[in-house]
Write a structure and sequence with these properties.
With about 300 residues, the chain is α+β, with helices and mostly antiparallel strands. It has 6 helices and 15 strands. The strands form 3 sheets. Strands 3, 4, 5, 6, 7 and 8 form a 6-stranded mixed β-sheet that branches. Strands 13-12-11-14-15 form a 5-stranded antiparallel β-sheet.
């Protein structure tokens, strides 16, 4: 079951019919518990995640009370040093993943998807998941005050909040208005240092950008319209350069981008500023889920703090 997009502006729905959870910054997965204690861990598109998260998949024998077969919905999460979820933290050596459980599709061999969400959550109440699994599995905490949770998660630098109707049924494959995601998205002004041609047609597929300190942030393609691409082509075509500005783009980051994109990448003089909406940064420094909001012709890179003039 998928959540619908956030209202604009982002705000928590009001009323006792709604409950709220932290929006975990991880990988969504279904855990299928067998009667023999085995666990299958599958992503939204059916990929086997047991190899990627072996500690999560290994707790099956510790869950005899589940009485399998059962299917639980949750998020595979890796916490950073501050205890906050880190989307790409699984790449760190020694990182331990945890499974935050927020729903139940089947329990003791019974399909419970048609039951209200509060009833499905209650099925987990008889299991002390943290104790049984040595803190590897845990139920996702539920809150009544969505506005307060939004404020708290913003202060802690977390991804956002999920709002769910307490009586919602579990609808597989449906993006339902009964579940609403409320992400914290930041606006950042970035400097354009290159662009990537579309695989066909020659349009602007994405922009290579750096932050106000000159650190590479990756590419931004979401939000690029045909009209914006056409307008940019007229400008970008006149400011091309053989390679990236060495004062703005670290050599390793530039080389990695060139390797990934190949000859579709065109470096340009760092003259243009864009405004990007995103969900923070990955551990490698790239923007997470960036969307191009608009170009900022009223600003030059010298107007941004940290960019050398």
């Amino acid at each position: 079951m998928l959540a619908s997009g956030p209202p604009q502006p982002v705000a928590a729905p009001v009323g006792d019919a709604w409950s709220f959870e932290v929006k975990w910054d991880g990988v969504r997965a279904l855990a299928m518990l067998g009667v023999d204690g085995s666990i299958g861990l599958r992503s939204r598109n059916g990929v086997d995640l047991a190899g990627r998260y072996p500690t999560i998949a290994a707790v099956g024998p510790a869950l005899p009370a589940a009485g399998g077969p059962a299917i639980l919905d949750g998020e595979c999460v890796v916490l950073d040093g501050s205890g906050r979820p880190s989307f790409d933290g699984a790449r760190r050596e020694g990182a331990v993943a945890r499974f935050m459980v927020f729903d139940v599709l089947a329990w003791h061999g019974r399909d419970v998807r048609s039951e209200p969400l509060d009833n499905r959550r209650a099925l987990l109440a008889g299991l002390d998941l943290p104790w049984l699994t040595n803190e590897i599995w845990a139920p996702s905490a539920v809150f009544d005050d969505g506005a307060a949770l939004l404020e708290a998660t913003a202060e802690q630098g977390m991804e956002g909040v999920m709002a769910k109707l307490r009586d919602s049924r579990y609808e597989c494959g449906v993006r339902s208005p009964d579940w609403v995601k409320l992400p914290h998205r930041s606006l950042t002004e970035v400097v354009v240092v290159g662009w990537v041609r579309a695989r066909s047609g020659g349009d602007v597929a994405s922009l290579a950008v750096v932050d106000a300190a000159g650190g590479a942030l990756g590419t931004v393609g979401s939000g690029m319209t045909q009209r914006m691409s056409a307008a940019l082509l007229g400008v970008l075509g006149g400011i091309g350069v053989p390679g990236p500005d060495p004062t703005l783009v670290a050599g390793e980051a530039a080389a990695a981008l060139e390797h990934r994109v190949g000859d579709r990448l065109v470096w340009v003089q760092p003259l243009l500023v864009a405004e990007v909406r995103h969900l923070g940064r990955t551990e490698s420094g790239n923007l997470r889920q960036p969307t191009l909001v608009r170009m900022r012709p009223d600003l030059s890179p010298a107007d941004l703090p940290g960019i050398p003039s």
